[in-house]
C-alpha cells in the first residue's frame, strides 16, 4: 500500500493508476469494521481502492470536537494494509486545502434543513466542500459512503448530481456492535456505562419501527414515540428524533414508502447519531 501525504503526490499516484476502475472511501480515521466494510465493498466494485483519512476542519463547528476527535494513524494504516487497499491519502489540513482557499460548496433545501443540518450549522457545507475537492483529486469511478450518516449520503448524491462530478455513489449498510450500538469512531470516548446508556438510540429506533409495524402512519406520533424513549433514558441528552421521507428527507405528515427514522443524542460529552430505513409496502399503508 502506498501512503501519500500531500496533493502533488496524490495526483501523481492517481495518474499512475490510469484508466482503471477506482473505488474511493473517504474517512476521518480511527477506523473500525464499519469503515472497513466500505473498503471491502469498494474492492468488489473496482480494481483499485483509495482511502482518505482526513479530519476535515470545515465540517466542525465552534465548540465541537475537532481537537479531541480520536486519531490513530499507525493503527489505521495497518488495518488498510491488511484489507488490501492500494493507496492511502493522509494529508494535514495545511496540505489538503491550498493557501488562501475561499470556496465553499453550499447545499440548500430540504436535504439540509432537518437532522444534523439543523443542529450543526455549516456542517454539510464543510462535507460538500471536502467531498467535491476529494472527488476532483482522486477522480474515482465509484465512491462508497455509509448509511450510518444517511443525510450525508443523500447530500453527497445531490452534490455529485448537481455539479456533474460523474462518480457512482454507493451506500453501505450500518455495521453494529453485537449490542446493537452503531459503530462510530466516537464510541471510543464512551465509558462502559455510557456504552450501555447509548443503546437508548437503538431502542428509540426500535420503538419508531415497531409503531409503524403496528400500523401507525402519522409521522408526528412516530416522532413522539422515539423522543419519549430518548427523554426517559438515563444519561442521555436528546438532540433530535425525526421521521422523514428517505429519498429527499422531506417532512411528510403521513408515512408511506421508504421512511427514514433518525436520532441523535449526547451521551456525556459525546454526540452520537443512528438511523433506520423502514419500507412501508403500498398494501399496508
Ligand atoms: P467517518 O470517519 O465517521 O467520517 O466515516 C467515514 C465513512 O464511514 C462514512 O461514509 C460513514 O458513513 C461510514 N461509517 C461510519 N460508521 C459506520 C458504520 N457503523 N457502518 C457503516 N459505515 C459507517
What CATH architecture of the largest domain would you give? 3-Layer(aba) Sandwich
Ligands, ions, cofactors:
adenosine monophosphate
* Oligomer description: single chain
Order of helices and strands: EHEHEHEHHHHEHEHHHEEE
Principal-axis shape: globular
* CATH T-level fold name of the largest domain: Rossmann fold
* CATH class assignment of the largest domain: Alpha Beta
The structural class is: alpha/beta
Reported for the largest beta sheet, the result is:
6 strands, parallel
Distance between the termini: 51 Å
Task: Give the number of domains.
Answer: 2
How much is the radius of gyration in Å?
19 Å
Query: What proportion of the residues is helical, as a percent range?
Result: 25-40%
Low-pLDDT runs of 5+ residues are none
What is the overall pLDDT average? 97
Tell me the β content. 15-25%
The strands making up the biggest β-sheet line up spatially as 1-4-3-2-5-6
According to CATH, the homologous superfamily of the largest domain is HUPs
Number of helices: 11
Number of strands: 9
Describe the structure.
The protein is of the alpha/beta class and 285 residues long. It has 2 domains: 2-172, 3-Layer(aba) Sandwich (Rossmann fold), CATH 3.40.50.620; 185-277, Pantoate--beta-alanine Ligase, Chain: A,domain 2. Helices cover 39% and strands 21% of the residues. It has helices at residues 7-17, 33-45, 73-82, 93-96, 110-113, 115-119, 123-138, 150-162, 192-197, 200-213, 219-232, and strands at 2-4, 22-27, 48-53, 87-89, 142-146, 168-172, 236-245, 257-267, 270-280. A 6-stranded parallel beta sheet has the order 1-4-3-2-5-6, with helices on both faces. Strands 7-8-9 form a 3-stranded antiparallel beta sheet. The longest helix is centred in the middle third of the chain and has 16 residues, at 123-138. The chain is globular and about 55 Å long. It binds adenosine monophosphate (AMP). Adenosine monophosphate binds at residues 27-28, 34-35, 37-38, 145-146, 148-149, 172, 174-175, 182-185.
Amino acid at each position: 500500500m502506498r501512503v501519500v501525504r500531500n496533493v502533488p503526490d496524490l495526483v501523481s499516484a492517481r495518474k499512475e493508476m490510469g484508466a482503471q476502475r477506482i473505488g474511493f472511501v473517504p474517512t476521518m480515521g480511527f477506523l473500525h469494521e464499519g469503515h472497513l466494510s466500505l473498503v471491502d465493498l469498494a474492492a468488489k466494485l473496482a480494481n483499485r481502492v483509495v482511502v482518505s483519512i482526513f479530519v476535515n476542519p470545515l465540517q466542525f463547528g465552534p465548540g465541537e470536537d475537532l481537537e479531541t476527535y480520536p486519531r490513530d494513524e499507525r493503527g489505521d494504516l495497518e488495518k488498510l494494509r491488511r484489507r488490501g487497499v492500494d493507496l492511502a491519502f493522509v494529508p494535514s489540513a495545511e496540505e489538503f486545502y491550498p493557501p488562501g482557499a475561499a470556496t465553499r460548496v453550499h447545499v440548500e433545501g430540504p436535504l439540509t434543513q432537518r437532522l444534523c443540518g439543523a443542529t450543526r450549522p455549516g456542517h454539510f457545507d464543510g462535507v460538500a466542500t471536502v467531498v467535491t475537492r476529494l472527488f476532483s483529486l482522486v477522480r474515482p469511478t465509484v465512491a462508497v459512503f455509509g448509511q450510518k450518516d444517511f443525510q450525508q449520503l443523500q447530500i453527497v448524491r445531490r452534490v455529485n448530481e448537481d455539479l456533474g462530478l460523474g462518480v457512482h455513489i454507493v451506500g453501505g449498510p450500518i455495521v453494529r456492535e453485537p449490542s446493537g450500538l452503531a459503530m462510530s469512531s466516537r464510541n471510543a470516548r464512551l465509558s462502559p456505562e455510557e456504552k450501555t446508556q447509548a443503546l437508548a438510540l437503538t431502542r428509540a429506533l426500535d420503538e419508531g419501527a415497531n409503531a409503524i409495524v403496528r400500523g401507525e402512519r402519522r409521522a408526528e406520533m412516530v416522532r413522539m414515540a422515539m423522543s419519549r424513549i430518548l427523554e426517559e433514558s438515563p444519561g442521555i441528552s436528546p438532540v433530535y428524533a425525526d421521521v422523514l421521507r428517505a429519498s429527499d428527507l422531506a417532512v411528510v405528515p403521513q408515512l408511506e414508502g421508504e421512511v427514514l427514522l433518525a436520532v441523535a443524542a449526547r451521551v456525556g460529552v459525546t454526540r452520537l447519531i443512528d438511523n433506520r430505513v423502514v419500507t412501508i409496502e403500498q398494501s399496508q399503508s
